[in-house]
Write a structure and sequence with these properties.
Length: 281
């Protein structure tokens, strides 16, 4: 788990959203299992609290109008579904249906991280032997498409007991290894880079200490990928009603892939838009 640090500036520079976006991009918040990330956000936003649903909220100002600005934290990911007798970890997908049929193929042969009770455990998804499996389906027939059911994660364990000794057990969150890559003209590539950069922009906007018009509730919400957007629904029920609701979001390329890409210049612009909106200008 990567912990975040507080940036103690009153007015952020144009570049200061970059390290924050990269830090958030290094973190994992599988839908329904976002607590580690929200723990860090509570430190980033002094005065914020975690509600009973797990959302991080901060109320700024007072009086009317009462408005809400929110950014969803969670990501489509996996949990440990079982551990085989020879120590391989099996997976189950968590969250909304995938956006395209080959989503799970990103796992095949790639590094993943299992977030066990004793900390992050590195692993790799095994690849079937080409020589032993080729042609097994039938002459001229294509090999079956890789799915999450084909994912066998090697965490260096020889038995199920070895895996559990590492802190790995059923329902532990699992994600692709996060290695955010800044490149080009302030582009950032990482799984979920768009959501992470948008939430970084919201945090950066709050850190400018805007002089809000009325009351603004800032919410970094969880479980958005469940039916009904459970985290946002909880904020509305607990802190609403609201006169206006705004969602922090950014346009991305290669969406929902391991190299989802966002322009950090757009994140800068979003910071300014959010501050303007909070101040009612």
């Amino acid at each position: 788990m990567l912990l975040l640090t507080v940036y103690p500036s009153n007015r952020l520079t144009a570049q200061s959203v970059d390290p924050l976006a990269i830090r958030l991009g290094n973190m994992t918040a599988v839908t329904g299992l976002e607590q580690a990330m929200t723990d860090s956000l509570l430190g980033l936003l002094p005065g914020s609290t975690r509600d009973r649903a797990g959302n991080v909220t901060l109320t700024i100002g007072q009086g009317a109008p009462k408005r809400l600005v929110q950014c969803p934290l969670d990501e489509l990911g996996y949990v440990v579904g079982n551990i085989t007798g020879d120590g391989y970890v099996l997976l189950r997908r968590v969250g909304a249906p995938t956006t395209y049929p080959l989503f799970d193929q990103q796992l095949e042969g790639h590094r993943v991280t299992v977030f066990g009770t004793k900390g992050a455990v590195p692993g790799v998804v095994a690849v079937k032997s080409t020589h032993l499996t080729r042609g097994r389906v039938g002459s001229g027939a294509p090999d079956p498409v890789f799915t999450v059911d084909n994912a066998y994660v090697d965490v260096g364990a020889a038995t199920a007991a070895d895996a559990r000794a590492l802190g790995v057990d059923v329902l532990a969150p699992v994600s692709l290894a996060k290695r955010p890559l800044p490149y080009g003209d302030r582009l950032l590539a990482a799984p979920g880079a768009g959501r992470r950069a948008a939430c970084a922009a919201l945090v950066a906007a709050v850190q400018t200490k805007p002089k809000v018009n009325g009351t603004v509730v800032v919410a970094l919400t969880v479980r958005s990928l469940y039916t009904g957007n459970a985290g946002l629904a909880s904020v509305k029920a607990l802190l609403g009603p609201f006169d206006d609701i705004k969602t922090a979001s950014l346009t991305t390329r290669y969406t929902d892939t391991a190299v989802e890409t966002v322009a950090l210049g757009d994140a800068d612009a979003l910071v300014k838009q959010l501050v303007t909106w909070m101040e009612g200008r």
